[in-house]
Amino acid sequence: MTDVLAPRYGTINLPYISTWPSKPMDEPMWALNLMHYRTKAEYADGRETNLTGWEADNLYSPLGPIAAIGAELVIVAIVVDQTAGSDYKWDRVAIVRYPNRQALADMNMSPEFQDLHIHKDAGMKFTIVSATFPQPETVDRSLLDTDTSPESLLLLQVVADAAAPEVELPGARRVGTFTIEDNVIGDDRKWAEARWDLLPSSTSAEAIREATDAAATDIDRYVLTIKPQLGDFLRAVAKS
Fold first, then answer.
1. Alpha helices in the chain (DSSP H)
2. What Cα–Cα distance (Å) separates residue 18 from each residue in 13, 38, 89, 102, 128?
């Protein structure tokens, strides 16, 4: 069993987590996960394995513990392009919506989660998990009535300052902008917003790169084009 309080893939933000008992218990937290995998899984107990980091994280997949505390996996997506932010090459993005902040801490301490965590620790080289909350005035409620193609792509902008320029693409629809309260795990950097856009099917990779360059800034940011695999993120946001 690995130590969930001292993982190898990031630093737990204990000062922030210590504030959770005083936070509203009726405010859902959308935990945004940015994931960068090891090329080959490395288990802390030294076991031999031929698994990739990605495959080890697939074994982790804590759907049981997530459901047990009333949380919901609302999106898992593959990163198909990264047009800003070069320190880490993100492989996958996920969001789990917890009924409140404390529910995440409760899940982490459950025996079933801890048994699965060894695979996450083996596969993950670095991760940022941020506590995010939708800004209601930015949410596109009409997405409840929108049929999207299985091939639809999303654009995710994670910025360190809400004043950072927008990456603007013709026909893109803002799904919602989320305030980032703080990191749950990661490093010393602070982030301000996560901006989600639904891209038209006609959007090219070149157009995304050109729009990213046009919004160039010295503010720390990641701009990711992602393809959803699991979850019903658009409707979950529209109902928030």
1. 14-17, 53-60, 63-68, 101-108, 111-123, 205-214, 233-238
2. 9, 30, 30, 10, 18
What is the model's pTM? 0.95
Structure tokens at 156: 């995710």
Residue 88 · residue 9 · CB < 8 Å: no
Backbone angles phi, psi at 160, to 5 degrees: -85, -10
Q: CA-CA distance, 14 to 185, in Å (whole number)?
A: 9
Count of other CB atoms within 10 angstroms of residue 168: 10
* Least confident among 14-18, 149-153, 198-202: 149-153
CA distance 125 to 34: 11
| Residue reference for tokens 């309080």 | 5
